[in-house]
Amino acid sequence: MNETVVMLSDEAEGPAATRRRIIDAATSLLEAGGRDAVTTRAVAAAAGIQAPTIYRLFGDKRGLLDAVAEQGLAQYIAEKKAHALRPDPIDDLRFGWDLNVSFGLAHPGIFSMINGEPRPAYRLPIVASGLEVLERKITRIAAAGLLRVSEERALNLVRASCVGAVLVLLSQPEDRRDPQLSAAARESTIAAITTSRPALKDSGAVSAAVALQASLGNTPALSPGERLLLSELLAKLAASA
Questions:
Q1: Dihedral of CA 208/209/215/216: which sign?
Q2: Which PANTHER family match (predicted)?
Q3: Does the first or last residue of the chain, that is N or C, have fewer Cβ atoms within 10 Å of its Cβ?
Q4: Helix (H) and strand (E) counts for the chain?
Q5: How does DSSP classify residue 144?
Q6: Same structural domain for residues 174 and 74?
């Protein structure tokens, strides 16, 4: 009986406001002390609520951490989408890389939680939204005929290299970090996935296949079945890189 009264008191400001207050408290604890610092007791004390309220609003600690990640990423992705595209698609990829690194260094708790787990993928919808931004950048490079590998491989190489660079930097004391590490990793990755000349003016069949595959969605002359068949053939050729 007493517990119910306390929980109602916790949410006197409204469930949405209480939820935001808990997420803000958990975010502060995560950034200051890592995931181990985000205990139910610590979050409840920081948010000025009782522990049962956390379980009722988020289910468990995993649900709370997901909410923390979702809020932090939503703000970051909104910032990314607000920036105008660079005319040069490769420069646009550089800009996106640098934004991602800046976010990771500014929010190590959220970045490490999302990218440092051995799970196959972090399946929050907002994470998928962030990947779509990167996929569009890769597709722009492919459509310009400047991609030397398949879009899938380019996407995974960029993700692996950028995330790896941030995690390495986060593992080092701030005053001993190599300020050029991210740029070096970025340029090495770009050199590995792009070509300096448009593929369709080159003799490279793989690059030409990648460029054509990126443009198939804008080709009304083909039926859906023809487009699917051609896409499969081009993907097979692109994968031979």
A1: positive
A2: HTH-TYPE TRANSCRIPTIONAL REGULATOR BETI (PTHR30055:SF234), HTH-TYPE TRANSCRIPTIONAL REGULATOR RUTR (PTHR30055)
A3: N
A4: 12, 0
A5: T
A6: yes
Question: How much is the pLDDT for 237?
Answer: 73
H/E stretch holding 86:
none
Give the CATH number of the domain where residue 20 resides: 1.10.10
Whether 97 and 187 share a structural domain: yes
- 53 with 76, same domain: the answer is no
* Of the candidates 221, 228, 97, the residue with the CA atom closest to the CA atom of residue 166: 97
Position 104 in a domain: yes
The alpha-carbon radius of gyration of the chain (Å, integer) is: 22
Q: Do both 128 and 47 map to the same domain?
A: no
| 166 vs 44: CA distance, rounded Å | 31
Please provide the distance, in angstroms rounded to a whole number, between the alpha carbons at the two ends of the chain: 67
How many angstroms separate the most distant Cα atoms in the chain?
Answer: 77
Q: Where are the alpha helices (DSSP H) in 34-88?
A: 40-47, 51-58, 61-82
Nearest to 153 by CA among 186, 192, 203: 192
162: CB partners within 8 A, 6+ apart: 97, 100, 101, 182, 185, 186, 189
Domain extent, residue 157, equals 69-198
Q: Quick: pLDDT tens for 11-48.
A: 556 788 999 999 999 999 998 888 889 999 999 999 99
CATH of the domain at 154: 1.10.357.10
3-class secondary structure, 194: strand
Residue 158 forms part of a structural domain:
yes
